[in-house]
From TrEMBL:
Membrane-spanning intervals of the chain: 12-35, 55-78, 85-110, 116-137, 144-162, 168-186
InterPro entries on file: CHR_Transporter, Chromate_transpt
Record key words, sorted: Cell membrane, Membrane, Transmembrane, Transmembrane helix
Name under which the protein is recorded: Chromate transporter
């Protein structure tokens, strides 16, 4: 039995794998460093997803167990090409790290003691911070749509930076507050419609 994907889908899967492989190969500084690169690749360059979808993907990826880069690659892959897309996207994001770590592990002692490597990593970390700030600004514009969103963002920032509260609790509180606010708005909308009909 032949169960082959159409050529267009095969091309999309290959493009998805290569795009995620490229991101995985050139992302340094942890999982959050891949977010601005995903945003640039999938939202700005390829227009595969919009900014609101990207924000949702980042929020969900942060909320579930696992590395944010892998989680985001699963969601993006599934969103674009179903289960095959999720599998290939995850493989593309993970494979560069596996290859690089396998090579480094063979020469770990020489690598870790090399002053040039340490200096290069310092420069890379500085660039990663700038990229994450850029992602926050770009993703923040469509996310902070009203005063409640601004208040939640500021309270969360204070809680993370100064109160050292676990991020998962803040995400859960944000979800609950957003849900309640949505319910209140829906009731007000229905009430306004009812008064308008009278």
């Amino acid at each position: 039995m032949e169960n082959q994907l159409p050529k267009r889908d095969k091309k999309l899967l290959l493009t998805l794998f290569l795009a995620m492989f490229k991101l995985g190969a050139f992302t340094f500084g942890g999982g959050y460093a891949i977010v601005p690169m995903m945003q640039k690749e999938y939202v700005e360059k390829r227009h595969w997803i919009n900014e609101n979808e990207m924000i949702d993907i980042v929020a969900i990826s942060q909320s579930v167990p696992g590395a944010i880069a892998v989680n985001a690659s699963i969601f993006i892959g599934y969103r674009l090409a179903g289960v095959p897309g999720a599998l290939l996207s995850t493989l593309g994001a993970s494979l560069p790290s596996l290859i690089i770590l396998a090579i480094i592990s063979l020469f770990y002692q020489a690598f870790i003691a090399n002053t040039y490597v340490a200096a290069a990593m310092q420069g890379i970390r500085a660039c990663v911070v700038a990229m994450m700030i850029s992602a926050v600004i770009k993703l923040g514009k469509p996310a902070l749509v009203d005063w409640l969103c601004w208040v939640l963002a500021l309270v969360t920032c204070v809680a993370v930076l100064w109160l050292d509260i676990n991020a998962i609790y803040l995400i859960l509180v944000g979800g609950v507050v957003g849900f309640i606010a949505g319910m209140v708005r829906a009731r007000r909308g229905k009430k306004a419609e009812g008064e308008a009909k009278k």
